Amino acid sequence: MKLARWILLGLLAATVQAGFVPCFEIAGAIPDLALLATIFAALFAPASHVLPLAWYMGTLEDLLSSGRFGVHGAAFLAVAFLVLDSRKNLFVEHSATHLLVTGLHALALYMVLGAASAARHDNLALLQALGCGFGAALYTTALTFPVFALARRITGTKTKPKEKTPLPAQF
Amino acid sequence: MRLKWPSQRLLVASLFFFSLISAVSPAGVSNSFESRFSSLRLAAAAPLRPATALFYRAGRAVNRIARDVRDFFGAEKTSDLREKIKLLEVQLAKANYALDLERDKLRNLTETRRLLGVEKAAAADVIRYSPIPAAVVAGEPALYRRALVINRGSADGVSKGQGVLWRDIVVGRIKSVSRGESVVELVTDPEFRAVARVGAQRTEGMIEGAYDSCRLKYVPEAAHVDSGDSVVASGQLGWFPPGAVFGKVSGKPAANPNGFLDIAVAPAIDLARVLSVVVAGGPAAAAKASPE
Q1: Which residues are CB-neighbours of A86 under 8 A, at least 6 positions away?
Q2: What pTM value is reported for the model?
Q3: CATH no. for residue A13?
């Protein structure tokens, strides 16, 4: 039942990404809601579900995109692997962690994709591609809080209560 | 990482390599395979299309409301006027092109046979460019690509390569087709290529997408091209009706060391924001209409 909610999150992210998001392009940059959903899953989903979920979300985006099939599947899987690997060392409930993890991974992903796109298409300048990728990473990071809040509702992920530090015995 | 070896790790590794190999495999290995794969991809995404179409309409509506609110508060009173100017410029470009054609016809009046040939070609064009109206049901979700999805497919007579227009303006070309849907590669997509004409001399060149604009290449250095000149379809190969507008030359063209001009072209409209388009037929439709 819990897994169904994560699958629903992926479907919703992909359909909104293909239908709604392209209408809100700013200077060639669009945010990637499926990437946000993947990072959310990598931070909060059960560890055994994270990587298949990331691949599923990336593949859904590949299906709805006109580019090469598999780009997002492989990229999201790599991002989820990195986040999952560092998850145990992160304070995943903190808002700054969400911003930092999203920003860093979005930036790294778009720089790689931008460089690859510029190398493949001689009429897409490298600086233009990287600039556009930087814009998209910023745009995606700016949407972290609302998207994570919505994703929490959809998946039923609860915020962990702060652990009370027991007072020393003499008090 | 708490993945159980070997089943889960094997599954994840297989998924990763499957995606990676699909992503980096060379394009154009087999046209028939690519065409079938694109159709399969479109068919697999078809169940999600009603939802994407709904979101697309909602996105457009929110955009419009936002623009109206801006206009109401006077932040952007000139936006509608700018749009009207763009449309009038397109009409002017079209009229200029028609005028040029008429001049050519007058010059060649004495060559009766040639004139008859032109008229026959014009009659054939009516069949070739029988339009198929379509609605846009989704945009391009990925960065670095420019595309739209329309709700007409092979069942409606759409085939790969056909031109897609909005009024007299070229929006793009059909990239892949399934039974009920097609992907339109926009003129700004980095993989878009077409033959175009520019300026009063109607010098031919190749127009290419450059993500947020277009570039016209292989126009000889000696050609007279100025900023603001209209760039129109040549009609060669038959994918786009001759005279359909791609956009206008933006900035001063500069000569490159190969003896050609580097010409930046601004699209005539915001291509990613159209709601309905027309598939303009093309050689496939012409072949169906006249099998000889």
Answers
A1: none
A2: 0.79
A3: 1.10.1760.20
